[in-house]
Every structure is written in C-alpha cells, then in structure tokens.
Design a protein that fits this description.
This protein is of the alpha/beta class and about 400 residues long. About 40% of the residues lie in helices and about 15% in strands. Strands 4-3-2-1-5-6-7 form a seven-stranded parallel β-sheet, sandwiched between helices. A four-stranded mixed β-sheet has the order 9-8-10-11, with helices on one face. Helix 10 packs across helix 14, helix 14 runs parallel beside helix 16 and helix 15 packs across helix 16. The radius of gyration is 20 Å and the shape is globular. It starts with a strand and ends with a helix.
C-alpha cells in the first residue's frame, strides 16, 4: 500500500529532506502535493523530479510564471490559502513552513482528519489551545518531526500507561556561542550566529538556536504535545517538569524520566531525515537507516546546564509558557520580528532578547480561546516589536 505525502514548505530544509526520504522508498511513499511561498525556480525543479498532482504557491503574483514552466498535467493553486489547501490532499502532510505562516497548514490537516508530520513549531506554540481542539477530529494524528520532540514521542511509547512519567529532558546543542559570557556576545555577527556546529537549518531557526530561543519554544511545544494541555496524552506533566540540558554532541536528542527514576533516551547521529522518516512511517519503522551510530568511534557524551544569564531567551519562553493564553503567540511573534531585524543588520544579537522582553512586558493577559484571539495576539505583538525597533 502506497502512502501519499504532501509537503508544505517543500523548498526549505525540511521539505527537501522529506523528498530525499521519500526517494529512498518510492514503492511505499508517493508525493502528491508540493507547496512553497515564492521560490518558483526550486518548486519547478521539484515538480519535474517528483511529478506531484498539485503544486501550491503562496505568492499569487508569480502564478502565471509557475504555470508556464511546470510540466503538463499538474494542477496549480496560488494565494494566501494555497499552502493549507494541499494539507487536505494526502495521507500525511509534512508541515515544514517556517514561523506563524505554517498555522493554517496545521489547522487544515488536522481538521481534515489526516496525519500531520509537524516541523512548524509556531503552530503549537502560538496557537496551542486552538490546535488542541482540532487534534480531537476523528482520524487526526500529530507526529512531531523536530528531533527533540520526535525523540520524546519515541520514548513515551514505552510508558505503557498514564502518569508514570515524572520529567522530560530536552537536549540542546548550545549553538555556536556555547560557553561565551554575556559580555563576549555583545558584538557577534550574523555570520557567526549562522554557523551552527552540528545542524544544517534555515537562517531563522539557526539564529533561534544561537539564542536558545529554539529550546524555549520547544519547551512550550513539548508542554502542548505531552503535558497537561494535551489532554489525550495523560502524562500529567506541567511546564516546569520539562528540563533543558546542553549536550554539544547532539547525539542524545531528548530523554524521558519515569516515576521509578529510570531515564530513557533516543540516540542517533544528527540527521533530520530520521525524524522525518519516523513521522512518515508511524506507527511502523522506516526500513532505511538514517543517523546510525558507529559505536566504535563515539568517544564521549557531555551534558551541562544552560547559561541562563548569557541566554535570557530561554527564561522568557518558560515564563510565556507559564502565563499561557496568548503569551506564547506574543513571544513567537516578537521573536520573529527581532530575528528578522538582526538578520537585516538593524539590531545586535544581544538586542533580540531585549526586544522580546520589552514586548512581553506589555502582554495584555488575553486568552487564546479562538483562532481570532491568536491572530490578534500575533498582530499586536508584532506592532509592539516594531515600535521597540524604532
């Protein structure tokens, strides 16, 4: 039986690696839809290689160009809702869209009762309560793709029953600035922030890794996936039961500690194709290896606590998670604005946390009972962040 796959954000890092995974087992998986924001050249090349049934482009100003260049027989959709459209076409949708723009894809896929392989953390961070509701749609299934949550997902499968889990440990590589003091970080450059020691990712996610905001966002996401908000999970965890541990080798992708004191970990070499393959094959195992460890050469595994003074974004995220409501949406939006400003050379690296902190001080305490609440919170936080940059 062939599993059909749609890829939202197909021209990004997650999308291109998903195509690579599918190519390893073309007898079991078939790509039926590809979607991207505006990268027409890359989308055309992918369509020629994969021959999907439909391609989607968010930038409708380039629709005519795309139609002219595509192979025949491929349907084309374009516009603001185009990426979400493909999420209703396949057995599994991989959401690799970066940032808040990926939320409609998440909502469409789960609302359609399909499996969502989610690499878009903003979906669960900014709109957790809203996403929780559509997760209850009959047939809907959410499998995380980022390496840490995929590791936790695998470890929790061994839990067997409710409330035997006492803590989750999210591992962090520490990024390119691990070990530097706050004073040493005052003048780091964009190029230095983008030089991640172990992972190859897009610029926004790489900068988030350098500030440890990525880990703070992952804490909120883990709480939504496996903690109290995820009512069906039943593990009874609160956000402060989620710990962050710096592990520079990026071999242990995360851990779960059980009530009897035992800790279970998922280990592999850094390779995003492994969690992608896991999400595509779930509940089975993908039968092509990615990230297999050579135990004869693995020398050491190091662990240390994060430096919360040099990397204040981590505590900003924990506090937003504790507050709940629209606070995570505000955090995610402010971070996107601040990171864009840093990449454009408008602010220093250390100013990213300062801008976010200023925005979060203005949070109005609003709830996130509906999608409109989340959208309003996102827009308001972006206005505050823009004002903080002026």
């Amino acid at each position: 039986m062939t599993t059909t796959v749609a890829i939202a954000g197909s021209t990004g890092s997650i999308g291109t690696q998903t195509i690579d995974v599918v190519a390893a087992r073309p007898d079991r998986y078939r790509i039926v839809a590809l979607a991207t924001g505006s990268r027409v050249d890359d989308l055309v090349a992918q369509a020629e290689a994969c021959r999907p049934e439909v391609v989607a482009l968010a930038d409708e100003t380039r629709l005519a160009e795309l139609r002219e260049r595509l192979p025949g027989g491929i349907e084309v959709v374009a516009g603001p809702d185009a990426l979400a459209t493909v999420a209703e076409t396949a057995d599994v949708t991989v959401n690799g869209v970066v940032g808040f723009a990926g939320l409609p894809v998440t909502m469409a896929c789960l609302s359609a009762g399909r499996r969502l392989a989610v690499a878009n953390t903003a979906s669960l961070i900014a709109a957790g309560p809203v996403v929780q509701e559509v997760r209850t749609t009959p047939g809907a299934e959410l499998v995380p793709v980022d390496s840490e949550h995929a590791a936790i997902h695998q470890c929790l499968r061994a839990a067997g029953r409710d409330r035997v889990v006492s803590a989750i440990q999210l591992t962090a590589s520490g990024g390119p600035f691990r070990g530097r003091s706050i004073d040493e970080l005052a003048e780091v450059t964009v190029e230095q922030a983008l030089a991640h020691p172990t992972w190859s990712m897009g610029p926004k996610i790489t900068v988030d890794s350098s500030t440890l905001m990525n880990k703070g966002l992952e804490v909120i996401e883990a709480n939504e996936l496996f903690g109290t908000p995820a009512r069906s999970a039943g593990y009874g965890l609160e956000i402060d039961d989620i710990e962050v541990v710096v592990h520079p080798q990026s071999i242990v992708h995360s851990m779960v500690t059980y009530a009897d004191g035992s800790t279970m970990a998922q280990l592999s070499e850094p390779d995003m194709r492994l969690p992608i393959a896991y999400a595509l094959a779930h509940p089975d195992r993908f039968d092509h290896p990615y990230g297999r460890i050579d135990w004869s050469t693995l020398g050491r595994l190091d662990f240390e606590p994060p430096d919360r003074v040099a990397f204040p974004c981590l505590d900003l995220a924990f506090e937003a998670g504790r507050v709940g409501g629209t606070a995570p949406a505000w955090l995610s939006a402010a971070n996107e604005v601040a990171v864009d400003a840093f990449l454009a050379g408008r602010i220093r690296w250390v100013d990213i946390a300062a801008v976010i902190g200023q925005v979060m001080e203005a949070h109005d305490g609003a709830s996130a009972g509906s999608l409109d609440d989340v959208l309003d919170g996102d827009a308001t936080a972006r206005r505050y962040a823009g004002a903080a940059l002026d």
